[in-house]
Amino acid sequence: MSWVTWVLILSGVALNAAAQLMLKLATRGLAHFTSLDWDTLQAGVLVLARSVAFWCGMVCYGTSLCVWLAALAKAPVSTAYPMLSLGYVVVTWVSVTWMGESLSVPKVVGIALICGGVFLVSRSSV
């Protein structure tokens, strides 16, 4: 694959991860809701509609979709799709370093397995 294809794939992964992180930030304002009734749903929608993080996340998702379509046009799906797993690595790293979430040994092992699998898929020629 060409370097342009790799840039498209990795950009799609990064934009998708950014979308997840933005949506997590946007939903922090929903943490105090304890029920799932109509009034709570309406209030939650209003909280999200006023959230810059929510709209940034939606823009990242839309952009990632366009970039991903361009990547799929150039790369075999059997190679490109597993690369989405790198999003788990990015989201975990950012959530630990910037959002104060914890990182356990099982998470580290899981991330190492993901990285190993992505490496093997990226190196295969078939």
Please give a structural write-up.
The protein is mainly alpha-helical and 126 residues long. It has one domain. It is 78% helix and 0% strand. It is built from six helices and no strands. It has helices at 3-27, 38-49, 52-74, 77-83, 86-97, 105-123. Helix 1 packs antiparallel against helix 3 (52-74). The radius of gyration is 17 Å and the shape is globular. It starts with a helix and ends with a helix.
Low-confidence stretches: none
Number of helices, where a helix is a run of at least 4 consecutive DSSP H or I residues: 6
Structural class: mainly alpha
Mean pLDDT: 90
Domain count, please report it.
1
- What would the principal axes of the Cα set say about the shape? globular
Give the percentage of residues in beta strands: under 5%
Main beta-sheet strand count, sense and barrel state? none
Question: How far apart, in Å, are the first and last alpha carbons?
Answer: 12 Å
Q: In angstroms, what is the radius of gyration?
A: 17 Å
H/E order of the elements? Answer: HHHHHH
Counting DSSP E segments of at least 2 residues, the number of strands comes to: 0
Please estimate the helix content.
Answer: over 70%
